[in-house]
Every structure is written in structure tokens, then in C-alpha cells.
Amino acid sequence: MAITRVLYLNSAAGTNNIGYSSGAIASFADWQAEGFDLQSSNDNPQFTNLAAGNLQPANAVIDNIGTPVGVLTDITGASRSTLIPDPGAYEFSVPVACPAPVGVTFTGITCVQATLNWIVTVTIGEFTIHYGPVGFTPGVDGTSFYSIFSAPFDLEFLTQGTTYQVYVQQDCYAAGMSTLSGPFTFTTETCVPGVISGPSSFCYSGTPTLELGSTGPGFTIQWQDSITGGTWTTIAGADSLTYTPSAPLTQTIYYRAITNGGSGNMISNVFEVAVSSPLITATNTPINLCAPGTAMVTATASTGDVKWYDAATDGNLLFTGTSFTTPVTSDTVFYAEASTGTPPTSHTTTFAGGNSSNGNIFPITALNSVTILSFAGNTGSTGNWSVYYRPDNYLNVPGANTSATGWILVGTASNVVPAGLGNPTPIPIPVNITIPAGMTYSFQVMSTSSVTYTNGTALGNVFNANSDFQFLEGHGGSLFNGINAPRVFNGIINYSSGCESPRVAVEVNLTPVTAINITGAGTICAGSNVTLSVAS
């Protein structure tokens, strides 16, 4: 039953009885034994100031022991608890001598660290933290920290993938210790070694910037390198998430990173930065023929394939292979090139269409060294095409989309017949521009007729990619006037990836033999001798 009254009895003399039933009831326990006031409490309310008439209780024993009966305010007008009101006329609270921490939370949980937070109604002294695996006994095992003066507090050097229990307590000095708050539980993450990424190949030489994926706060990092991938050398001073060699690489080098967050060393992936240095090491030049005919030209490559061209630079690819047999009608020079990497292939951007103008401006970022060979566009109209490039990301150059400054002409082609919308129209302009690994080059592919392209999502966004390069969104419009953005070039990018050596000349020379004149007697008798004279 609800507490309905507070009785104050104070007889100066004589016998005080609690009540009368079948007889005088001497104690409250006897009174309850008779079946009365079974839900009542018999405690000294410890009135705040009886002499002054302040009858507000101060005894924590009777705080919050009432039952709600619909009385929402006390005698002073203060709101009563709707769940655990106080008995009597006053709604009161009794300050705890040493309040315990409450509201314990965990933030910044990694595989080796977590940040502990708490609040307390009154900070009187300092705090003690106990933590350990599930089931540990605070102050006996686990780990304890004393004399912590405020939250938050970092728990460090934890074990990955482990569930911990935490207790927090306030030390109020002369007022004693608070109750022990807890256990509160959290679980550390599983550590994953960082993954190295960056340019993975260079032609003859290059300087990569490598990046180690985030490993979490508190980790130490140490980069190592190796020529063979088996014997590792610590790189002095290389202790951050990124690493750039102090000098260009001229040979293939392997890299890895050792990380430690307090739970032991972890080793990243092994990352190879390949440096290709193909060379033509031997040829059969010169080749001398006495008359027009066929010649077999031969070259040996240190690595990769031998490609034969008709010019020292650019020109036409004639054959791929060590030996090349070809007809020769005059003195001719062939050029052998050692080549490694991806053979000529193609990358499709999109043919989705949706918008149009005269063409596009767009960047290409090389993941490996790539040579852009040519383009195909998306058009339904005959037109004159032009291709320009610049050896940078034009998006980083203000005004580069509306100015000719910095753009280099690759070539032009007139009266190119279209293959029809949605089909690749080959643009007969040899490009042959090599983009080194890790670099971004920009291209303008424009026509005098209508060219179809697609609306993009953001300038510089990677629209699509392959293992060799990333194709980025750029502008649409006309030559040196790309004012529509973002736009996506519709078409095909023909390219090769790898490294090409300087070309070596193989000469085929025709050296005609001078006619031989023979003189002597015109007629002789059988069995006679004759003298012949030969002059050339």
C-alpha cells in the first residue's frame, strides 16, 4: 500500500506506544505483525531543521521509496517523481557523499586503442580506472590507473579482437570512495596491415610516391626496400604513411612497411616498382645486296619484343619479331625497337551519348607507363578532326579549357567518314604520346561537325579505369572553348603500356655490280687457242 502519512510522536515522559489493536502495541515491528502498514517504513527522517520548522527529510534511506498516487507536486510546488516519489509532504534528494561516475562510453576504438569517457554529478577528487578481459577482478588482476583527474582517458596497447570490461570509481578523499561503476564492455577491432599503393612501373627511371593505407592512431611505421624481394633493408627516416625515394629508381625495387600498434609487428603487402630498360643489343646491319630483292633484317632485344618501324621516331609499325624479311628496291633503313608491356589494345569510355557539341577535353592518369596510340569518337557526321595534348592536368591550370596556351598539336585529319552514332569512328591521327607512370596528361579531341558525348558527375572524377590508366571527366565544347562541364568523351582510347627503347637503324644497301666487257677473236678454228681480255 502507499505511504499515506508521516507520524511524529514526541512524549517527554511516560510510555510511547505505536498503536492499539487487541492491546497496546509497543513497537512498529509489533504493529506490522498485526498486519498493519506493511508497506510503511520506520526510520528517522532526519528533518533538515526541526527547531526552525523545516521538516524536509534528509535521510537517504527513505529517499524515493514512495508509490505514485497521482500527486504531481509537493508542498513547495516542486515536481514529484512519477515513478519513485518521496513519502510525505516534500520531494527531496540527499546528496551522495562521493558520487560515482555515470554515462560511461567508448569512442575511437581501434585494434589497439580506445578512448574512455564518463560524467559525474560532482567531481570531488580523482578517478580510478580498472580494465581487463571479461571476468577479471578489479584491483586484483587486469590493469589499473590511479589519480586520473578528468575524462576522457585513452586506453592504449590493447590486444586486437579482444573484449574488455572497464570499471570507473571516484576517490573523494576524506569523503571516501564512490561505488564502483561497471562493468562496461567494448571490443577492439582486428588489426589489418596497411596496404601499399602507388605507381608500379617506370620506363628506364622514375620516382614513385608510395602510400600506406591507414593503420590507425598510435602505430609506428618503418619502410623497407629490397632488390630481390627477399633480403630487406630498413630505410632511414622512412616512418610516415607516404614514402618517396630520394633519387629516381633505375632498377626494379621491392617495398614493404612494418607497422606496430603495441600488439606486435605487422607486415604490409610487398609492392614491386618495376623499372624496364629494354635495349636492342645486336643487329645484322649493314646488309648489302647486289640487286633489288628481299632482305632479312635481324635484331636482338635484351627483354621484350622487337618492333620494326620505317622511321626513327613515330612512323609505321612494320613487323613484330626478331627477324623481318621484306622486299627492297633501293637503299632502305629499317628501325628496330625493344618493347615491353601491354601490346596495343583499346579502352572504351562509353557510348551512352545524351549530349553533343564539337568534342571533348579530358585528362588521363597513367598507373603504368602508357603510350596513347589513337582515338575513335562517337559521331554521325563527316568532319575534320584535330587532336591536341598537354603534359599536365589541364583542370589544375585556370583557363586551360578556353585557351590555346599550353596545348600542343598532335595532328589533323580531314573529311573523316562517320561510322554512325553509337559506333566507334576511327580518327586517323597517330598520337603516339607516352604518359609516364603516375603522371596525368590532357587531350583535346575535336571535330568541325557534331560529336556526341555524355554528361558527367564531377570535373576530374574517375569515370572508368583499367590496370594501366584512369580516364577522367572533363569538358565538352569546341576547340579551345570547352565551356560545358562535366562532360564525358564517348569513344575508344587505343594504347599500349610498357617501355620502348631508342630505335636502332638497320641498313640495307644496294650495290650493283659494274658490267664486265669481254674482248677477243671473233672466230677461231676448232682446237685452236684464244686469248680473252676482261675489263670492268
| Annotated CATH topology of the largest domain | Jelly Rolls
Return the domain count: 4
| Rg, Cα atoms, Å | 46 Å
Give the CATH superfamily of the largest domain: PHR domain
Q: Give unreliable regions as ranges.
A: 1-6
**Largest sheet descriptor:** 9 strands, mixed
Q: Which structural class best describes the helix and strand composition?
A: mainly beta
The DSSP helix count reads 1
Share of residues in helices: under 10%
CATH class of the largest domain: Mainly Beta
- What shape does the CA trace take? elongated
Whole-number average pLDDT?
A: 89
CATH architecture of the largest domain: Sandwich
Share in β-strands = 35-45%
Distance between termini? 144 Å
How many strand segments?
A: 40
General description of the model:
The chain has 536 residues and is mainly β. The protein has four domains: 1-94, no CATH class; 102-187, Immunoglobulin-like (Sandwich); 196-276, Immunoglobulins (Immunoglobulin-like, Sandwich); 350-490, Jelly Rolls (Sandwich). Strands 20, 22, 23, 25, 27, 30, 31, 37 and 38 form a nine-stranded mixed β-sheet that branches. Strands 26, 28, 29, 32, 33, 34, 35 and 36 form an eight-stranded antiparallel β-sheet that branches. A hairpin with a 3-residue loop joins strand 1 (19-20) and strand 2 (24-25). The longest helix is centred in the N-terminal third of the chain and has 6 residues, at 28-33. It is elongated and about 185 Å long. Residues 1-6 have low confidence and may be disordered.
